Amino acid sequence: MIRLESIQRCYVSEDVETTALLDIDLTVEAGEFVAVMEPSGCGKSTLLNTLGTVDRPTAGRYWFGERDLATLDEKALAAFRGKTLGFVFQSFNLIDELTIEENVALGLAYRQDAGDRRARVSAAMDKVGIAHRARHFPHQLSGGQQQRAAIARAIVGDPMLILADEPTGNLDTANGEQVMDILVGLNNGGATIVMVTHSPSHADVAKRRIDMLDGRIVASTALAI
Predict the structure, then answer these.
(1) CATH superfamily of 31-59+71-222
(2) Which of 58, 136, 169, 190 has the lowest tally of Cβ within 10 angstroms?
(3) pTM
(4) Dihedral-angle region of residue 11 (phi above 0 means left; psi in -120 to 50 means alpha; beta otherwise)
(5) For every one of its 225 residues, what pLDDT tens digit does the chain have, with 9 covering 90 and above?
(6) Distance (Å, rounded) from C-alpha 134 to C-alpha 221?
């Protein structure tokens, strides 16, 4: 489904050039759950941002199916993200002034073919166990509940790929395990997931683990399920 070929990403600031990604070759098949780990540096987050098309590579090719995303302009990329990708962030990124139901509905903003939007929002909230909080506001929820709402927003549009950036980073152990159980359940239901994490135990629930060091992929390990 996804193929990265010789991806590089360099950042230039005054006289300093920083290489965040170097010669990245990566394929992710439909239905995979891939965890990306790196002990330090920004390589793993830059990789996720590249997969999410919010950061353009300095060099290399990014294929999504038969589509070369390098040929798309910013407007087309925004539409692609809204229709194809679901994002889960460490800091939840919920809008305080909107109810949980309204926050989840934002995941359909770019979907003109969403059909019965209310039904889809309700189904997404049911799937992550947050439907009883639909009329509440983010500040009225625990951190774990907010992250479940964020996952509902990510999946409401039935994306082809879910990108999760440290989804348990702001949670305690119990809530972190609940979020991982949800992600595993989504993957078992057919969702394709790429997750950045600093937790070896959470990485080990994926089907494949990618280890990075200094912006390079140094190992790709299939995990026993």
Answers:
(1) P-loop containing nucleotide triphosphate hydrolases (3.40.50.300)
(2) 190
(3) 0.92
(4) beta
(5) 999 999 999 988 877 888 889 999 999 999 999 999 987 777 888 999 999 999 989 999 999 998 889 888 888 998 888 889 999 998 999 999 999 999 999 998 877 665 688 999 999 999 999 999 999 999 999 999 999 999 999 999 999 999 999 999 889 999 999 999 999 999 999 999 999 998 899 999 999 999 999 899 999 999 865
(6) 39
Planar angle of CA 157, 160, 162, nearest 5 degrees: 80
CA angle 33, 188, 53 (to 5 degrees): 40
Please name the amino acid found at residue 53.
T
Cα dihedral 8/26/84/191 (nearest 10): -150
Domain residue spans in the chain? 31-59+71-222
Q: How many residues does the chain have?
A: 225
